[in-house]
Every structure is written in C-alpha cells, then in structure tokens.
Fold:
Amino acid sequence: MENISIYINKACPQAYRDYLLKNIKATNFQLKVIEEKDQFNDLVSLAQQIQKQEIARAIIIDEFGTLPFLVMGKFKKVVVAQISDHHSARMTIQHNNSNVLAVPFQVMAVENMVDIINTYLTANFEAGRHMVRINMLDVILKEE
Structure:
C-alpha cells in the first residue's frame, strides 16, 4: 500500500478542504493530510520524503500550484506536475510517472479538483516507450 501525503495550503477555504477529504477515493493508498505551517520548508520536506521513499507521492493543494512546482522540481527523483485538467492528471502518471501533483484551488471548482485527484490516484505508469525518456533523465541526473 502506497503512502501518499496531501498537503493543503492554509489559504484553501475550509469548505474546499472538507469536500476534498470527504470525496477523495483512496482504496489502495494510505493518505496523510498535512496542513501548511511554513510552505517553503514544508515543500522541501515533502520532496526529501519522496527522495528517501518514505512516501510514494504527494498531492499539493495550492493557490495556483506554481510554488510547489518550482520548489519541489529542483530535487532529484521528484517529478512535479502542475495540473488543472482531468486528462493531464492521467497522462502525467502514464507518461512521466510523476510523483507530485500540484493542484490550484484558486482557478477551479472543488468538484473538478476531486476528479483530478481521483484520476491521478487511479492512473498507472505505462512504462514501455516512456521508459526510454525516464531512463535518459535518470542518466542526466546521475551526472550532476
């Protein structure tokens, strides 16, 4: 069973939080909800947990998703997707095996957020032809 952290920005309205947590379907995952304390340090900590394989994935509920994308994308083995649509939520797992999903609550309805998160949680990495790109990235990162 994968461990997944859901990080919620403190600016996210309580009604959004309640609706999200009530409607996210996590049958094959153990979800841990984290409330924002110090956003930058919290994001760094989540990235480090992914690197150490303490958690498999992270879902970041942020105002626009840009800060998590910029901060966490700097870490090796952390693949961040800033997503605002259902199709991209599935494709980012299937093609890139992304382990961080940044979802902007300021630009979408909470029902869409739930759909995006549930799609992300149920999608699987397809490997195959996509492994060539993933392996190339791994080689580049090892050289740094």
